[in-house]
Please model this.
Amino acid sequence: MITSICMGEQEDQIYVINKLNQLMTIKFSYDKDRSSGQDGPKIKPLHTAFHSQCITGMDICLRKQLIVTTSHLYINIWNYATKSLEISHRCQQTDEPAAVAFHPSGFHIVVAFGDKIVCMNVLSSTLKEYSPQLQLKGCKEIRFSNGGHMFAAAVNLGAIHIYNFYT
Model:
């Protein structure tokens, strides 16, 4: 569904904002589209795809120029130096991430879901879950220690659980 539309200065592009607040562009030419017999112009995102729902968690990596954000069913890792999306990971339908923390090295993240905490490796183009999941319901905040050897998980009731990251 389109919420806003506008024509480019050269009148060869149309800019569209959809209901998910994503900016898209449609390039077209009057003569080429009709005579070539092609399907016509295609819509493409103008910028890297942003979250369409509210952001539930965010953390900044200390050693790399990366930011991790979580939203409804998605975990995204952004490079703030190049202003690009490095990794977009879709979670399972039953999982909605509530909080996230970057390991100081930048090679791992810890994500809190509704009923569990998951450790993930940050690979070049994807996230890979490893080690057994920690069963902890209602975690709303996660933070690593300065050295990265421990992390804390805060629960709704005010309890703070401390875990050794490597064991």
Q: What stands out?
A: The chain has one helix and 15 strands. The chain has two domains: 2-45, 57-164. Residues 63 and 105 are 6 Å apart (CA to CA).
